[in-house]
Every structure is written in structure tokens, then in C-alpha cells.
């Protein structure tokens, strides 16, 4: 029971940290997209470097403690810091490739929708999704609500509906590629295509 409670606390901590990335669009509004990209690129380089030192057994107190506490054991052995690396890349790519409001939408859905799905799914989910039994309908519903709500702060309502639905669908799929990458890229591409074609 204690082990289960500890694992639940760790997962909650991971997802709250995941949701904290929603501050990136605000940072970009204050310092600009270019400066934000530089900041994220620096952060990416630091995380990647620390991942290498961790694998080589070089002790860096705070980072090692962070990985030991929040990284899943199987991931920690193969690629320490993997989640953080993909997480930062998932913020950099939309800022590079998409128009500002779409990029912000992608980041918010990735941070809030994905985190909400996991938190609700693990704590309250009872109905498994047929095509991916690791996910629950309750978790996906939470993802949908949070994603649409977050998207609506950046794009018109009809685009927010499309973005939220697309992000939720991608998050629910049993894909091998990390959803920190698939969600922002697919959502961003979808919104860019719709706006470019003048369909919404």
C-alpha cells in the first residue's frame, strides 16, 4: 500500500511539473518568441548534457535527485531525462514552425491536456478505451475539456474545438512516438492547414 501511494505521489508530481509548461506562452508574450526559443534551446542543451553525465555516473545533486524521484525506473536506465528532453523539444518545434497563436495552442494542449488526462485517468478512470487499454475514457474526457478550454484562449472557438479534439485523439492513441512530440506537431499541422485553406 505504501509503495502504491508513493508511486501515485510520484506520478502526480510528474504531471504537475508537466502542466507547469503552460507558462511558456506567457513567457513568450513577455520576452518574445525568439528569446523564448533561445531560452528553451539552452535548457534543452543543459538537460541533454546532464542526461549524459547521469548515465556516466557523474553526481550532480539536484538533477540526480530530480531524475531519481520523478523518472520512471525503466526510462531512467535507458535514457535518463528522456521525458524532459522530449518535453522541451515539443515546445521548441511549434514555436519554430507555426504561427504564434497556433504554437501557443499546441503548447497549452500538450502541457495541460496531457497532464489532465493522466491525473484523472489514473485517479478516477474505470472505463478503458477499446483501442488503447492503457488509457481511460474519463482521462480522455478531462483531456478534451482542458484542451478545448486552453485552446480557446488563443484561437477562435471553432479552431479550439478542432485543436482540443485532435489533441485528445492523438493523446489516446497507442503510438510509439512520445506524445510530447506527436500532440503539438499534429495539432499545429491540422490548425495551420485549416486556416491556410480558409476552412475555418
Q: Short summary of the structure?
A:
By secondary structure, the chain is mainly α. The chain is built from ten helices and two strands, in the order H-H-H-H-H-H-H-E-E-H-H-H.
How would you describe what is shown here?
The protein is built from ten helices and two strands; from the N terminus they run αααααααββααα. Strands 1-2 form a two-stranded antiparallel ribbon. Helix 6 packs parallel to helix 10, helix 7 packs across helix 9 and helix 8 packs antiparallel against helix 9. The longest helix has 25 residues. Strand 1 and strand 2 form a beta hairpin. The chain is mainly α.
For the biggest sheet, the summary is: 2 strands, antiparallel
Strand content of the residues, in percent? under 5%
The gross shape turns out to be globular
Helix content: over 70%
Please identify the structural class as seen in this structure.
mainly alpha
Widest sheet: strand ordering:
1-2
Rg of Cα set: 17 Å
Report the total helices: 10
Mean pLDDT across all residues, rounded?
A: 88
Amino acid at each position: 500500500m505504501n509503495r502504491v501511494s508513493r508511486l501515485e505521489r510520484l506520478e502526480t508530481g510528474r504531471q504537475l511539473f508537466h502542466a507547469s509548461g503552460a507558462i511558456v506562452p506567457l513567457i513568450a508574450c513577455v520576452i518574445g518568441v525568439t528569446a523564448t526559443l533561445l531560452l528553451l534551446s539552452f535548457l534543452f542543451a543543459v538537460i541533454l548534457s546532464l542526461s549524459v553525465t547521469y548515465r556516466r555516473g557523474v553526481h550532480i545533486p539536484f538533477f540526480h535527485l530530480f531524475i531519481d524521484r520523478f523518472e520512471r525506473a525503466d526510462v531512467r536506465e535507458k535514457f535518463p531525462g528522456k521525458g524532459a528532453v522530449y518535453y522541451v523539444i515539443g515546445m521548441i518545434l511549434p514555436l519554430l514552425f507555426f504561427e504564434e497563436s497556433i504554437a501557443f495552442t499546441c503548447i497549452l494542449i500538450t502541457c495541460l491536456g496531457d497532464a489532465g488526462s493522466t491525473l484523472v485517468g489514473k485517479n478516477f478512470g474505470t472505463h478503458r478505451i477499446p483501442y488503447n487499454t492503457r488509457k481511460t475514457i474519463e482521462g480522455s474526457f478531462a483531456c478534451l475539456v482542458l484542451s478545448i478550454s486552453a485552446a480557446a484562449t488563443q484561437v477562435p472557438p471553432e479552431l479550439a474545438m478542432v485543436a482540443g479534439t485532435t489533441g485528445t485523439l492523438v493523446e489516446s492513441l497507442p503510438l510509439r512516438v512520445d506524445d510530447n512530440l506527436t500532440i503539438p506537431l499534429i495539432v499545429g499541422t491540422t490548425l495551420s492547414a485549416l486556416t491556410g485553406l480558409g476552412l475555418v
